[in-house]
Structure formats: C-alpha cells, structure tokens
C-alpha cells in the first residue's frame, strides 16, 4: 500500500512500534495528535507531511512548541526506517495499517467520532466489509449465555443475512463468540473489533479461514501484538458503536464505554437486554430496553433503521441540490 506523506506522518506520530510501547519517545495520543494537526493546519506548512524534513528548531518556530515537546515530535517523525520495517512485518502477517488520510479509512467513523476518531486502524481481511451496514453485538466474557440470549443472537444474525447486514462483534468469549458462530453457520459477513490480541485472533484456524474467504475482517486500534486490556476494550467499543447502525448490549459491567456511547450518540439505535440487571443503568440513560428477539421483533426494529437511513439520504440529496 502506498501512503501519502500526511498518512506516513500520522503513523510516525501515533503508532506504537512495539506492543508494550517501550519506545524512546512515547507516541502521541489521539488528543495530542489532534492538537498538533490543528497547529499544523493553522501554520504556513498547512499539512502534516510538511513536518517530515523539519528539525527541532523549525518545529519550535512553526508550531510554537516548547523545546521538550518539539524534541518528542522530532524524534517520532524520525522513526521512518523502523516504521517501514514494522509495516512490512505486518503485511507479511496479513495485516494492513490504515490512517485517517487513506481512502480505506471508514467515513462513517470520521463522521460519528469527529476529533476522537482513532488516527490509525490495523486491518486483516477484506476492507470492503467496513462499507457494509453493521449490527453490533456486545457483551463481556465470562458470562454464561442463556438460551433466551442465544435465541436472540441467532435471530439477529438471521435477520442480518436476510437484510444485507454484517455482524460486528468484539471477538471474545460470550455473546460475541456466539454471534460469530451463528455468522459462520449462516455465512454472514463478520467484523471482529478487537481490544487486543489481534495476532492470536487471526491465527486461529476458523478466523483465518473466514478472513481468507473474504467473509471476515479483524480490526484493532492497538499494536497487533498488544494483549487484551479493559482500556483497549473501551476504545474498541467506541469504534464499534460508531460503526454499528444498531447495537445490542446483552450484558455489561458498565466499564466498557457503553454509557459514553449513549451520551455522545455514537450510535442512533442502542438496545439493552432487559434480562441483565446492570443493563437497567443503560436503559435509564437512554438505551432502549428489549426482551427476547424473534424474527418478527427484528423485522419491526430494522424498519426503523431503514426509514431513518432513507430520511438521512433524502436530506443530504436536498442539500446537494441547493
């Protein structure tokens, strides 16, 4: 993949080249990256790629940075050789890095998350799957899946197949794994948004086969060798809510960013299974409570999503005509 200077600069500034971030200069966080981007846009250079040949004093003068911060930015921008080796290593394992400046980066994510959109995504599989409408299935691992929940997830996957949706999961044990199993049985496209452990995930035989067949895509916001952590899962969930046309939360510990997704309207249609006690908190904060999902219930719900999407398209068409 050929990267523009702006894309390469974004990766230099924000990408961890090691799974534990044990690097000489700490990569910029999303907030830090946005601040630097705004300073660059307001400068005479105007674009991130213009920073690639600058020295520390030039960065200090152009962006009005203190010496310590300019040194950090300079150090990150001069990791070009190391970054190139890392990207080649990812490609050999079937993983591609995509930045905000690449056309493969999902527009829906930019639109939904705005300045909080992650600068870089790691992808393994058919990138075109990111353009499909998605139904998100959310839950935490270590929770026994009841028959009612299994039946509901099965109805979701069956409805997705009939109406042309992909299934978006978190990839871990629990309802995500149940949804993945039904998606495999019914041959429904699947996107696994991971909170770590990407290398291990795509190396598992079933996942590898689905990816090779173009029926699954793995996405990570973290270095592919990073381990699963709750903080990684929170960021992953923000991505997932923003990408999903409708999201179904079957169980939660209220520590994975669900309330934040409701507050910031990352997804228009968030449903919380009323049979899980802690979901009552989500319902009280704006999620729609729901019981067992049948084919009939799915059909009724999906009509609302379709009508809402049609209204949005009509509105944009009207504005373009003006």
TrEMBL record:
A GO biological process held by the record:
DNA-mediated transformation
Spell out where the chain crosses the membrane. none
Query: Which Pfam family, any one of them, does this sequence belong to?
Result: DNA_processg_A
What are the Smf/DprA SLOG domain coordinates in residue numbering? 98-262
**Name this protein carries in UniProt:** DNA-processing protein DprA
Source organism per entry reads: Candidatus Pullichristensenella excrementigallinarum
């Amino acid at each position: 993949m050929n990267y523009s200077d702006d894309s390469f600069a974004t990766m230099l500034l924000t990408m961890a080249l090691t799974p534990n971030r044990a690097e000489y200069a700490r990569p910029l966080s999303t907030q830090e990256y946005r601040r630097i981007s705004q300073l660059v846009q307001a400068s005479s250079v105007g674009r991130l790629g213009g920073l690639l040949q600058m020295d520390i004093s030039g960065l200090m003068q152009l962006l009005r940075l203190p010496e310590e911060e300019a040194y950090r930015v300079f150090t990150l921008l001069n990791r070009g050789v190391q970054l190139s080796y890392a990207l080649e290593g990812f490609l050999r394992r079937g993983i591609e890095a995509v930045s905000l400046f690449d056309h493969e980066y999902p527009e829906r994510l930019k639109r939904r998350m705005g300045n909080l959109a992650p600068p870089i995504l790691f992808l393994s599989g058919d990138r075109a799957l990111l353009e499909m409408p998605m139904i998100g299935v959310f839950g935490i691992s270590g929770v026994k899946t009841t028959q009612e929940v299994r039946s509901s997830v099965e109805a979701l996957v069956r409805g997705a197949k009939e109406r042309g949706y992909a299934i978006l999961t978190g990839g871990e044990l629990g309802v995500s794994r149940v949804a993945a199993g039904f998606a495999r049985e019914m041959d429904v496209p699947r996107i696994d948004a991971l909170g770590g452990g990407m290398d291990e995930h795509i190396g598992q035989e079933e996942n590898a086969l689905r990816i090779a067949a173009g029926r699954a895509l793995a996405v990570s916001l973290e270095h592919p060798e990073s381990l699963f952590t709750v903080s990684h899962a929170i960021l992953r969930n923000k991505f997932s809510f923003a990408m999903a046309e409708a999201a179904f939360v079957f169980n939660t510990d209220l520590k994975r960013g669900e309330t934040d997704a409701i507050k910031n309207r990352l997804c228009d249609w968030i449903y919380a299974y009323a049979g899980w006690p802690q979901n009552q908190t989500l319902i009280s904060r704006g999620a729609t409570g729901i019981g067992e999902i049948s084919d009939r219930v799915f059909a009724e719900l999906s009509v609302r999503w379709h009508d809402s999407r049609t209204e949005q398209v009509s509105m944009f068409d009207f504005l373009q005509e003006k």
